[in-house]
Amino acid sequence: MTNSSDKIHQQLLQLATQAQKNAHAPYSNFKVGAAILDENNQQHASCNVENAAYPLGQCAEAGAISAMISSGNTQIKQILIVSPNDNFCPPCGGCRQKIAEFANDQTQVHLAKSNGEVKSVHFKDLLPLAFGFDKNEST
Ligand code: THU
């Protein structure tokens, strides 16, 4: 039986997988897709876009964040990252900081393998003690 959260996972997975197909990854041959559910229940997807000048490449999560922000939405309720193989593709350190900018204590991160297996974690467990101007403890 499916409930509404399963349905959201499926939609995010479908959207991320579609974007993943368009990834530009000729250097790593590692195609990643990401999809975000925002605070208004709109969904945004992207893929990694590499560059011959390697450091200029952009991760899939960064593209999905750009799509969310340019659509006028600002909060990541859920983000799903689909890997190109049978390992999970957890967000890299840089992407964790980028996600932190628009995440909150409820933000969920879904990691999907290429076979559709999904593992879900809370974002706060992926980046404890994250840097942020409003997140510093005073003690
Ligand atoms: N990549 C992502 O798109 N997201 C991640 O969280 C990890 C890595 C991309 C960057 C690069 O294009 C390729 O995967 C190999 O590192």
List the main descriptive attributes of the protein structure presented here:
139 residues, alpha+beta, Cytidine Deaminase, domain 2, 5 strands, 20% strand, binds tetrahydrodeoxyuridine
Task: Tell me about this structure.
- With 139 residues, this protein is an alpha+beta fold.
- It has a single domain (3-134), classed as Cytidine Deaminase, domain 2.
- 29% of the residues lie in helices and 20% in strands.
- The protein contains four helices and five strands; from the N terminus they run αββαβαββα.
- The chain has helices at residues 4-21, 60-70, 93-100, 123-126, and strands spanning 33-38, 43-47, 76-82, 108-112, 118-122.
- The protein has a five-stranded mixed β-sheet with strand order 2-1-3-4-5.
- β4 (108-112) and β5 (118-122) form a beta hairpin.
- 35% of the residues are buried.
- Bound molecules: tetrahydrodeoxyuridine.
- Residues 25, 28, 30, 32, 48, 50, 57, 59-61, 89, 91-92, 95 line the site of tetrahydrodeoxyuridine.
- Tetrahydrodeoxyuridine binds at residues 25, 28, 30, 32, 48, 50, 57, 59-61, 89, 91-92, 95.
- Keywords: Hydrolase, Metal-binding, Zinc.
- GO terms for molecular function: cytidine deaminase activity.
- It comes from Paraglaciecola algarum.
